[in-house]
Amino acid sequence: MNKKIEIGIITVNDPKNYGNRLQNYALQQVLRDYGTVSTVNQFLNVNRPVEIIEKRLFARLRPVLNRFLSLMPSERSLDFKRLCRSDAFTRRYVPCSQLYASTCLTANNIASLKTVVVGSDQVWNDRWISGRVLSARLADMTNDKTRLISYAASFGINQVKDESKPIFKKQLARFSAISVREDQGVTLVNELSGKPATVVLDPTLMVPAEHWRSITRGFVPRDDKYVLTYFLGKPSAEQECTIQEYARKHGCRVRRMIDSCDPETYVAGPEDFVELFSKAEYVFADSYHACCFSLLFHKQFTVFNRAGTKGKANMNSRMETLFRLFELDSVMLDDGLAPEIDYKKVDLLLQQHRAESKAWLDTAMEA
Q1: Could you tell me if 248 and 220 are in contact, meaning their C-beta atoms sit under 8 angstroms apart?
Q2: DSSP state, 232?
Q3: pLDDT tens per residue, range 282-330
Q4: What is the largest CA-CA distance in the chain?
Q5: What percent of the chain has pLDDT over 70?
């Protein structure tokens, strides 16, 4: 990037997570209205030079490893192929800049940034990370000259650990504006810092469907007719029967994301995820971003409670907030098909929430 970078994004850098890669791309697109943008390359180990060497070695050896593993019909080879496609997506669309942040509380070039934006995804979920990493996810390496805001940041949990509370209290006080992805996030920010927070749309919903289609690369065969599933948990026997019955009735095959029983679909990269949703006949899922992309592409879909849970009381706050925003409380079921979604109403609500989220961001970026 030749232009001086003005805005840095601090997010979760997870190459294995579709939602993470796509929200990173979307947030970058949204922030381009305000200046040149790049994602901060977070090195979460103290020994940063070792990490740099590892990344460079992986880049050099990737073609050889890919050729070798392609000969091995195993889940490990499928994982590697999917990782390579995700890595290619990141290098093509959301490459990390020469802005580095590490948990040894040092930073390179971040002081030169006009703005740092934290979000989206579960950047503040302290169940997965140490206190040092949490501090980095709260942009503790920035100085007082850098505008610090969050966009659609998510906790992903109802309560934080006691040992995290002082970190949140100290670091959230430095933010000039805070927005979150779920209603519970508003409550947590207020409890932890006394500061107000606003619910905004996930950045994936801020990018129009036609733009998402423009990054697809022909992963889905022409005239493929399929029901798409995307489950982070495992469907119950009853839920699986519903899926099979729908597919049989409508003359579809079933394509299963992140299920090694369907190797053709398993190796999909982030842009392939988008294409699979854009061309599906119907979607069954238990994932937040599966709902987001189903809404963007006007897909009828059913969200199943994960096996072992019952009823809407078990929804996490981000799903519950999404359904509140789009008046879709009835799409989450223990089994069966959700009522048909009225996309004229959804599009009106999407237009409204996009305008509100953009207005919040305009104000935050001007403060």
Answers
A1: no
A2: S
A3: 999 999 999 999 999 999 999 998 765 554 444 478 899 999 999 998 8
A4: 61
A5: 84
> What pLDDT, in 10s, does the model give residues 132-158?
889 989 999 888 899 999 999 999 999
Length of the chain: 367
The tally of CA atoms less than 13 A away on the side-chain side of residue 128 is 13
Question: HEC string of 93-136?
Answer: HCCEEEEEEECCCCEECHHHCCEEEECCCCCCCCCCCCHHHHHH
Q: Which amino acid is at 114?
A: K
Contact between 235 and 243 (Cβ < 8 Å): yes
Q: Which residues pair with 7 in a beta bridge?
A: 37, 115
Neighbours of 302 (CB within 10 A): 23
DSSP secondary structure letters along 6-56 = -EEEE----TT-HHHHHHHHHHHHHHTTSS-EEEEEEE-SS-HHHHHHHHH
pTM above 0.85, yes or no: yes
| SS3 of 166-204 | HHHHHHHCCCCEEEECCHHHHHHHHHHHCCCCEECCCHH
β-partners of residue 115 are 7, 147
What structural domains and CATH numbers belong to the chain? 7-206+355-366 (3.40.50), 209-348 (3.40.50)
